[in-house]
Amino acid sequence: MPVVSADVEPLTFVFADDGLVPNNPMPFLVYRGALAINHAHPERSIESLFGANGWGDMWRNGIFDYLHYHATVHEALGVARGHARVQFGGNSGKALEISAGDVAILPAGTGHQCLAASPDFSVVGAYPPGPPMQITRPTPENHAKALKTIPQVKLPNTDPVMGADGPLVRLWTL
Asked: What would the DSSP string read from start to end of 138-167?
């Protein structure tokens, strides 16, 4: 597993509903440089960490280059390699540079889209126990449905980086 900095506190952002991307009143979290990844298998290390903290249904890839969100599940994105500029929160949100060792945690409904990435950019995505992830595009119809499903998404019991005592557990409340 990667070495996790015990005193890392995530950056927090709250994005407003823009009429197409619902976002979430709970904060979007970014752990900058939380993971020390200095070996040949960073994806496996992130998968081990997320799995040990109860987040599963993992995948490896990049981040889609079109705006989307997940209305039925929260998502963790652990950057294993490279760097990217990602728009979080929809068109009215914020573009952030994320790089190897960073982890972004998106509450259900948070818009995201990769704007640019290094050729070696690699992410491990994971979800807390619950329904399967669905990719939702921002349309008026999808927005109306998401406003009903997002409040029903259960809070995770653990932070994917810091476990049961991690910041997510105290920062995310309904």
From this structure: --HHHHHHHHHHGGGSPPPSSBTTTBTTSH
